Amino acid sequence: MRVIRIAGLGLAGLLLAACSGQTAGTAQAVGAAGTAATTPGVPAATVAFEGGDRLSPKDPIVVKVSGGTLQAVTVTNPQTGNAVKGDLSPDKTTWTSDDHLRYNATYQVVATAVNQAGAATEQRAEVHTIKPAGVATPALFQPASNDVGVGLIIGLKFDHDITDKATVEKSLKVTSSPSQDGSWYWVSKREVHFRPKDYWKAGSTVKLETTTFGTPIGGEVYGGQDVTATYKVHDSWIAKADGKTHQIKAFHNGQLVKTAPISMGKTANTPPRGPTPTFNGTHTVLSKEEHKIMDSCTYGVCEGDPGYYSAPENWNVRISNDGEYLHENLKTVSVQGSDNVSNGCLNMNTENAKWFFDNFNTGDVVEVTNSGGPQLSINNGHGDWAISWAAWQAGSALRG
User: Fold this and answer.
1) CATH number of 237-389
2) CA dist., res. 227 & res. 323, Å (int)
3) Could you report the per-residue pLDDT of 59-72, keeping only the tens digit for each?
4) Residues annotated as part of the active site
5) How many whole angstroms separate alpha carbon 46 and alpha carbon 31?
6) Among 80, 260, 284, 369, which residue's Cβ finds the most Cβ atoms within 10 Å?
7) CA distance 340 to 248
8) What is the rounded CA–CA span in Å between residue 171 and residue 158?
9) pLDDT in tens, 196-255
10) Residue 223 neighbours by CB distance under 10 Å
């Protein structure tokens, strides 16, 4: 049993006994007026504090008594004034905290116990929590939502580099109903994503839980506050856009419900920008905007540069971080269905663009083939689905 330091004595590894001024076989009872009485032959209650001089903030403070019962235990952080919650065991011999503690903090513990004769013993101590070199706090890559598509990607971004990825990955838990196997993939030293082999089943409930807080994760860095998130997957909406046929087909729960002509990004080396093909591979819907100014300056082609444009567009469904959208473009209606001339977006007429805007939402899937462009990367939106399942599994710190 590890024991915390007694306040004021500066000693570690010591079993804490009853109040000062008592000898074995004698208990001291403190009266209302501060007078003391002794009960010969009755041993004083002995209080011990389990823990250590540098406690992990995820571990509990434990107070135990022998030869009596605990009457009261208070634990306070004097830096914040906050009290730490805890529970007594049914026999009142053990008190255990059930709050997460803070890093690099001091907690004052006051325990009062009574022996078999009812004599009170008060003991004070201090608990010090560890001071890490850094705290890696995760943020959700995809906010919790009750309305996401089957292409949902779950992920976490940490604010510190993770050197012990395996330990972190063991602390991450994803469950789904109905059950579906999946795997984690480390995108970088700070970011990790999760997906199943195939798209999530329509109607699934998916839950993410982390237990990284208080865990050493390499380089004297510890895990920050844990996060949880629950996702409800709606009906399956999958669009298949083909750059060779210049058509996009929409499937609702596996049934074809819409076919529309499109114009993808141009592959010809025409001035002033040259080729601007749409990325091949599986995209997912990231966001939607009814009206948006499409400005080439967002990717470095600004006013005065060859190829600069700034144009209002309607019914915009974003499918990559690189500025790819499904949207209305009335200037290309004449070649929609026959030629690819856009700057990378999937152009449609007003009716078709609004239909996709109304029916496709965050996490729904748009599969692009035969665009003549490179593969969509994992850092360009949700390009995770473009990675083969074998390569995805190899990206896990536990499987790779």
Assistant:
1) 2.40.440.10
2) 30
3) 999 999 999 999 99
4) 327, 345
5) 20
6) 284
7) 13
8) 14
9) 999 999 999 999 999 999 999 999 999 999 999 999 999 999 999 999 999 999 999 999
10) 26
